[in-house]
Specification:
single chain; 42 residues; alpha+beta; two-stranded parallel ribbon; 2 helices; 2 strands; 24% strand
Length: 42
């Protein structure tokens, strides 16, 4: 299971990603809704 993190701010995206990965979660990131939909459809 992967968690998709979507935010237009790279700093917040990275902060959330790092925290989740340290907690043992796999993550994907996207900067906007269009990129998030591409990830979600894979």
């Amino acid at each position: 299971m992967k968690i998709l993190i979507v935010d237009d701010g790279p700093r917040l995206r990275d902060l959330v990603r790092i925290a989740l990965e340290r907690a043992g979660f796999a993550t994907l990131t996207a900067a906007d809704g269009a990129a998030a939909l591409i990830h979600a459809r894979r």
